[in-house]
Design a protein that fits this description.
Length: 486
């Protein structure tokens, strides 16, 4: 304990002790440390978290508090605008320094600049660090000193020049501030659903926290990295790393993942390892886009789509959200999302394409739903990937590339393992009919106990007609006939 002026370590998207540059700085300063988490939905342009993220955050903060407590350092919780909270804590504690790891969404960046300015004006030390991405967005530029708009040259730049610092160790001890600070009760923040409690499926699907993140990472490296390039598109195989929610909430850092992958390279096919590393750099690219396009979740990256004729159909949107479109691969994905708070990446592309191109519903409706229901709802990756699949974004799949959900099911879930897991009413239907149950013979449907329109819906839209409608709508803003789809 010490009566010297303390330093505030402000936790954000970094709910971990190891490889936390802000925490390392706070400990190495020699000052008594105040560990603080601020639930800020009050600063201008802050986007409130979705319900699934809040559920995860509740458990993530519980884990962080327990880990800090092993070092006799309490976690202080405060709700309010970050600037107001920090002023209050400084006044209450006499702190003369604040440190944190930078965030990159618009509201967080604006708050950072304002906070750093008044701290310095008040004579307080203010230091921020790069802790949630590997490279600062302004550090990665094209040869003409512009932000990248295309992923492949972005990847090549980093692959050729990337210097990834070694992960920092967790502190072995923390000098703790001796004062008594008032802290909010996490339970009073109401992050856990009650009436109804829809979180049982998520609780069964996930372990949450720093230790859980490394347990999941170790299992992936040992069991699935070697085959990642071949198996990652098979949603029924569970061969992906599932690290996205741990990255989103900062239970693990990208630096830790990068070096863990390199260390395991001797045990894995080099191509498989590179493919996984590229996925990590996709996340970096998304943060690069967000930094330079702060309204990424609201505005088309490609402005010509501002004139696109989106349909407004609440019925179609609701059928998609509930997994009742009549296309089993789409419905399986949407039900996996609702049950577990997560969806396999290949299926994310399929359901995204279906909403935007088959139903012509604005991609922002899908992005909003994912933001609300994903435990890994990321401020950069979520809008960037929705704009990618919609054809409106940077380095996007062209709009006229329209996934055929029937063929996608046949190609990537040929045995129907994934579909039957999340659409159990089709469990007795032979796999060869799972792409398009409406084409199955009547006796096959009857034997499987399926009555279309009753036990499972007819398709809400015909694939060929929907595809043509999408191409015709695209042609309206293109001024010419659209190209072929796939």
């Amino acid at each position: 304990m010490s009566d010297a002026p303390p330093i505030i370590c402000w936790f954000r998207q970094d709910l971990r002790l190891a490889d936390n540059p802000a925490l390392t700085h706070a400990v190495e300063s020699g000052k008594p440390v105040i560990a603080l988490y601020v639930h800020d939905e009050f600063s201008p342009d802050i986007r409130p978290m979705g319900a699934a993220q809040k559920w995860w955050l509740h458990h993530g903060l519980t884990d962080l508090a327990a880990n800090l407590q092993t070092l006799d350092c309490p976690l202080n919780l405060k709700s309010g605008a970050a600037e107001d909270v920090l002023r209050e804590i400084i006044k209450e504690s006499g702190a003369d320094a604040v440190c944190w790891n930078r965030c990159y969404a618009l509201g967080e960046q604006n708050a950072d600049r304002a906070i750093k300015a008044w701290l310095k004006d008040d004579g307080c030390e203010a230091k921020s660090f790069a802790g949630i991405i590997i490279h600062e967005p302004d550090q990665v530029r094209t040869g003409s000193d512009r932000p990248y708009r295309v992923y492949t040259p972005f990847w090549k730049n980093l692959a050729e020049n990337m210097q990834v610092r070694a992960p920092l160790p967790a502190p072995g001890a923390i000098k703790t501030h001796s004062g008594n600070l008032t802290s909010d009760s996490l339970d009073h923040w109401g992050f856990l659903p009650t009436k109804p409690d829809w979180s049982a499926g998520m609780a069964n699907a996930w372990e949450i926290g720093e230790k859980a993140a490394h347990k999941q990472l170790d299992a992936f490296l040992a069991d699935n990295l070697h085959d990642y390039d071949k198996a990652r598109d098979n949603p029924g195989a569970d061969c992906t790393s599932r690290m996205s929610p741990y990255l989103r909430h900062g239970h693990v850092s990208p630096h830790q993942l990068w070096h863990a992958c390199q260390d395991e390279g001797r045990m894995a096919d080099d191509h498989a390892r590179t493919v996984w590393m590229k996925e990590l750099v996709w996340r970096e690219f998304s943060y690069h886009l967000l930094n330079h396009n702060p309204r990424l979740h609201e505005r088309n990256f490609n402005a010509r789509f501002d004139h696109f004729s989106w349909r407004r159909s609440q019925a179609d949107l609701r059928a998609w959200q509930k997994g009742q479109t009549g296309y089993p691969i789409v419905d399986a994905g949407m039900r996996q999302l609702w049950q577990t708070g997560w969806m396999h990446n290949r299926v994310r592309m399929i359901v995204g394409s279906f909403l935007v191109k088959h139903l012509l519903v604005d991609w922002r409706e899908g992005e909003d739903w994912f933001w609300e229901t994903l435990v890994d709802g990321d401020p950069a990756s979520n809008p960037a990937q929705w704009q990618w699949v919609a054809g409106t974004g940077a380095d996007a799949a062209p709009f006229f590339r329209i996934f055929n959900p029937i063929l996608q099911a046949e190609k990537f879930d040929p045995k129907g393992t994934y579909i039957k897991r999340f659409v159990p009413e089709l469990i007795d239907l032979p796999a060869k009919h799972l792409g398009a149950p409406w084409n199955a013979p009547e006796d096959v449907l009857e034997e499987a106990g399926i009555t279309l329109g009753e036990t499972y819906p007819y398709p809400i839209v015909d694939h060929k007609k929907a595809r043509q409608r999408a191409l015709d709508t695209l042609a309206e803003i293109s001024g010419k006939s659209a190209g072929d789809g796939s």
